[in-house]
Amino acid sequence: MSLSDIADSLPPVLRDQPIERVTRGGVEYVVLGTAHVSRTSVEAVDALLAHEPFDAVAVELCDSRAQGMRDPDAFKQMDLFQVIRQGKAGMVAASLVLSSFQKRLAEQYGIQPGAEMKAAMDGADQRALPVWLVDREVGTTLKRAWHSVGFWQRFGLLGGLIASVFERQQIEEVEIEKLKQGDMLESAFSEFASESAPLYRSLIAERDAYMAARLREQAASSGFAAGRRVLVVIGAGHLKGLCELLRTQQDDPSTLAGQLASTPPKARWPKWLAIGLVLAIFAAIGFAFHRNTTLGAAALRDWVLYTGGFSAIGAIIAGAHPLSVLAAFIAAPIKPFRPGIPSGGISAMVEAWVRRPRVADFDTLRDDIGHWRGWWSNRVARTLLNFFLVSLGTIIGEYTAGIHIVKSLF
């Protein structure tokens, strides 16, 4: 049967849908490009599953996103203490921002973004078909995107994410068109994805290659041979790139997927710069004591007051409990002698202990973070806010103290 014959035999809802058929290793991959805010895409998934037989269903989801769709309340089990201790506060905050963006879309268009992926998984479950989660873990993608851009571009990304939380107007038409072309992450990062080649590569091109490798890997591990068929449901923005790579990719799929799933090492220069700054400040304090005990004591006092003071101000701005403010003031000056959890982490852990999040805080978290007041009224959001503002205050305090101490020597 020719492709035109196949198209003619399709149900009406499928005839205008972007569908590609790729055969690799005898396995036929029927790739359906979807729009993440379209009821038609949901209907297309259901119709394709009903119209054609498949041996597996692959979706553009990672484990965490799939779990979030299957169990929207799973995040309520989040342990804030572990999140802070493991240095995942930033990733959790970014995920919450993305979920807030999705919620606004759902309110504006009456359909939850990614509903077609949920329909594909549900359809596979109903037919007892295996579900292949072929997208890269969203946390890894965000980390690789973050590391792919320069220092100043990161401020633009942070500003864009923050603005997307507090923007109360309807989402612009251009962003909806991006979603109709099919990628949630690219749309959430707005114009930065289209203007930055490294960012586009991390958000789109690398994931195309990863998903193609994962499809090949899953087919091999499942023992699929000639005659087996897999339905692949992906955003339309990935359709062309994925199909091309599925045809031409020659690297070992497991090796390639492993490389693309790795987190790039952190740049060392910020760490060495921070260490160098602190060593220079303490050298200045030591020189002050050498010149005059009173001058040295004043320099040491300035270090404590500036670092502890700015950190405490960060906690106060975050609306932290007095004990959390005190923890910030104590932790910041001794940061150089206490490697590990930053002062923001210690203050946030005290905040989470003193004001333990209630069930209601988790229930309303996604709603609360969409309004600036919610970051202060919701205990989960306020703990994260406390972490960031205290950490920022510590950095400001270190630089301010250093400048003041050096000036006092001359």
From TrEMBL:
<keyword id="KW-0812">Transmembrane</keyword>
<feature type="transmembrane region" description="Helical">
    <location>
        <begin position="272"/>
        <end position="290"/>
    </location>
</feature>
<dbReference type="InterPro" id="IPR002816">
    <property type="entry name" value="TraB/PrgY/GumN_fam"/>
</dbReference>
<keyword id="KW-0472">Membrane</keyword>
<dbReference type="Pfam" id="PF01963">
    <property type="entry name" value="TraB_PrgY_gumN"/>
</dbReference>
<feature type="transmembrane region" description="Helical">
    <location>
        <begin position="310"/>
        <end position="332"/>
    </location>
</feature>
<feature type="transmembrane region" description="Helical">
    <location>
        <begin position="383"/>
        <end position="406"/>
    </location>
</feature>
<dbReference type="InterPro" id="IPR046345">
    <property type="entry name" value="TraB_PrgY-like"/>
</dbReference>
<keyword id="KW-1133">Transmembrane helix</keyword>
<protein>
    <submittedName>
        <fullName>TraB/GumN family protein</fullName>
    </submittedName>
</protein>
<dbReference type="InterPro" id="IPR005230">
    <property type="entry name" value="TraB_bac"/>
</dbReference>
